[in-house]
Amino acid sequence: MNTHAAGTFDITINPQPPYDTVSGAILSRVSISKVFHGDLQAVSTLEMLSAITTVSNSAGYVAIEHVTGTLLGRAGGFVLQHSGTMTRGKPELRVSVVPDSGTGELARIRGSMVIEIIDGKHIYEFDFDFADPPVS
Predict the structure, then answer these.
(1) pTM of this structure
(2) Handedness of CA 117, 38, 133, 1 (dihedral sign)
């Protein structure tokens, strides 16, 4: 990845009641809206599925997020795929662009995003580039 973008984002969370409480885990769904600031001026909608275990601070989640706006002045959209776990308080998160999900001036975008929460503020670091056009 050869281009870097950074900034902050605000979130609005709409949790749903758990849909399954199997032995050892609570399964839930959450809808989230975001507004990105900084190098990425955009809005997004995200659907997240999570599993919270009976072990303190252990959980997992997956999510799909549709982002629309401008990235360093290029207008368009793309989809991010999230996969996160928390193992007894130790977080691991992977957020990557879904292949071929880019539109407009962001067509062929590929990359990965790092998300951190510092003092209650959501911060993103996004490394990306653009794939060569497909060969016909």
Answers:
(1) 0.91
(2) negative
